[in-house]
Amino acid sequence: MVMNGENPANGDRSGPASGPGPGSVSGSASGDGSAPVGLRERKKRLTYQAVSDAAITMFLERGFDKVSVAEVAAAADISKPTLFRYFPAKEDLVLHRFADHEDEAARVVTARSRDETPLDALRRHFLDGLDRRDPVTGLCDVPQVLAFLRLLYGTPSLVARLHAYQGRSEAALARALGGGLSDRLAAGQIIAVLRILALENWRRIDAGESADRVYAGAVQAAEEAFVQLRTGLGPPSRAGG
Question: By C-alpha distance, which of 202, 204, 167, 205 is closest to 187?
Answer without folding.
Answer: 167
